[in-house]
């Protein structure tokens, strides 16, 4: 067995992970407690020793939580720190805890426990953000705004419809985090260093104690598998990508150029020199931090790609990036919930933008189609009309009937019934932006959210 703390090594700082893996102390202690109990139940260690171990670990946990634990870098990692401290506290019995165990199955267990917890917590925050989006969507079931393609005003849509697009992205993200939870939900403990252990263990008992749904199969795979972290990090990268897109829209919309929304003071910062500024720093930082989350995914993929079976110390590099991803994502989700909830929509500005300019060109082409003109030809008429209106410095809605008729005699008084409202109402196909469809979509989203929340894993 390894002798904690024996023999100083000159470059210990290089191999030490204690600065960051101490974050896993709760999981590590829980794993040790379950392992000790199982060893005693199986008659592998004595009941008295197990009791001492469990009590000692509880005391250590308290020490850590009170900030009184004497962390020692020369002991390299969390596992050695705790075991050494246990020796100091309960003496010889501590030496029995590591029976039928290796740091390899131990650390894999710790990280899986942690990944399960954060996957559940991520889902909880994701649902809260979905709820905020849905509340805003419901409040804006009648608010019009321009929909864009190529960041050019394209066709009017309902703000509810626009916000529901993000709800749907997050719904898919939720599915990925559930999957990440499922892949983490496998117990490696009990396979030892790589090959299994020569003791009659009850691995199922340990799995139940720790809340794992199943135990690992192949021992060699289990000590070196970090796919579950890739699953979480992939889900996180996609989710940050979605949040970054939303961030980008919030930045644009809150600019003077768009003027569609006003972000609450809590989510803007002033400039040290320009007193009028209300900078959307939170949205910008979220957009910027997406990069590091992508980076950690690629980092871990790269760590894993050249590893022969089974455990290699490279695997210690699985943690820092993962922790940073977790912190970044959880923080971002929390901020976005508040930012979305508190943003103020400037309805009239949005509506004016949805009515103005050339936004109704497609609908005017459809108007001609309804009068029998082939769509391609109607498209051509509207292209000319749009050019003309632009030349006059007018929007399509500002032209007179006489001007319309210069381009096609089929235009009549009812051309003025082509409004943004009418354009939206006309898009009455499943998945479209018509109020009737959006109403159904809102209801479906509410239901999906409630159902999702009921089925998500608990933190
Ligand atoms: N700190 C190590 C890690 O995070 C713990 C496992 C070390 N195991 C070993 N055989 N050196 O991977």
List the main descriptive attributes of the protein structure presented here.
459 residues, mainly alpha, Fumarase C, Chain B, domain 1, Fumarase C, Chain A, domain 2, Ribonucleotide Reductase Protein R1, domain 1, two-stranded antiparallel ribbon, two-stranded parallel ribbon, 61% helix, 5% strand, elongated, binds arginine
Could you walk me through the main structural features you see in this protein, from its secondary elements to its overall organization?
61% of the residues lie in helices and 5% in strands. The chain has 459 residues and is mainly alpha-helical. The protein folds into three domains: 85 residues, Orthogonal Bundle (Fumarase C, Chain B, domain 1), CATH 1.10.275.10; 224 residues, Fumarase C, Chain A, domain 2 (Up-down Bundle), CATH 1.20.200.10; 93 residues, Fumarase/aspartase (C-terminal domain) (Ribonucleotide Reductase Protein R1, domain 1, Orthogonal Bundle), CATH 1.10.40. A two-stranded antiparallel sheet has the order 1-2. The protein has a two-stranded parallel ribbon with strand order 3-4. Strand 1 and strand 2 form a beta hairpin. Helix 6 packs parallel to helix 12. The longest helix has 37 residues. It is elongated and about 100 Å long. The structure holds arginine. The site of arginine has 10 residues, from helix 6.
């Amino acid at each position: 067995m390894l002798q904690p703390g024996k023999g100083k090594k000159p470059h210990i700082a290089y191999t030490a992970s204690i600065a960051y893996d101490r974050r896993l102390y709760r999981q590590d202690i829980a794993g040790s407690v379950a392992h000790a109990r199982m060893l005693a139940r199986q008659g592998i260690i004595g009941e008295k020793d197990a009791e001492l171990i469990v009590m000692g670990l509880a005391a250590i946990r308290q020490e850590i939580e009170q900030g009184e634990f004497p962390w020692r870098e020369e002991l390299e990692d969390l596992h050695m720190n705790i075991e050494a401290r246990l020796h100091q506290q309960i003496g010889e019995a501590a030496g029995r805890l590591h029976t039928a165990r290796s740091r390899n199955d131990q650390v894999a267990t710790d990280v899986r426990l942690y990944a399960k917890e954060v996957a559940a917590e991520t889902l909880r925050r994701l649902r809260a953000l979905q709820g905020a989006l849905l509340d805003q969507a419901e409040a804006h079931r009648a608010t019009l705004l321009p929909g864009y393609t190529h960041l050019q005003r394209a066709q009017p849509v309902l703000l509810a419809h626009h916000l529901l697009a993000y709800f749907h992205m997050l719904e898919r993200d939720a599915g990925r985090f559930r999957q990440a939870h499922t892949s983490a939900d496998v117990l490696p403990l009990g396979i030892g260093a790589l090959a299994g252990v020569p003791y009659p263990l009850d691995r199922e008992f340990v799995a139940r104690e720790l809340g794992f749904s199943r135990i690992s199969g192949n021992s060699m795979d289990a000590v070196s598998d970090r796919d579950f972290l890739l699953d979480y990090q992939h889900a996180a990268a996609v989710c940050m990508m979605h949040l970054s897109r939303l961030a980008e829209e919030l930045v644009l919309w809150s600019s003077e150029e768009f003027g569609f929304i006003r972000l609450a003071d809590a989510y803007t910062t002033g400039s040290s020199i320009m007193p009028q500024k209300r900078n959307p720093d939170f949205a910008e930082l979220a957009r910027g931090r997406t990069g590091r989350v992508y980076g950690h995914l690629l980092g871990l993929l790269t760590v894993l790609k050249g590893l022969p079976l089974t455990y290699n110390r490279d695997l210690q590099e699985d943690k820092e990036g993962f922790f940073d991803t977790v912190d970044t994502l959880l923080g971002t989700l929390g901020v976005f919930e508040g930012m979305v909830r508190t943003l103020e929509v400037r309805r009239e500005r949005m509506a004016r933008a949805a009515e103005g300019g050339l936004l109704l060109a497609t609908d005017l082409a459809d108007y001609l189609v309804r009068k029998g003109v082939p769509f391609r030809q109607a498209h051509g008429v509207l292209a000319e009309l749009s050019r003309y209106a632009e030349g006059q410095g007018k929007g399509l809605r500002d032209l007179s009937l006489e001007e319309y008729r210069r381009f096609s005699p089929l235009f009549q008084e009812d051309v003025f019934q082509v409004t943004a409202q009418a354009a939206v109402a006309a898009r009455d196909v499943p998945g479209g932006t018509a109020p009737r469809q959006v109403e159904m979509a809102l209801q479906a989203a509410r239901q999906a959210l409630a159902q999702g929340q009921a089925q998500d894993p608990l933190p």
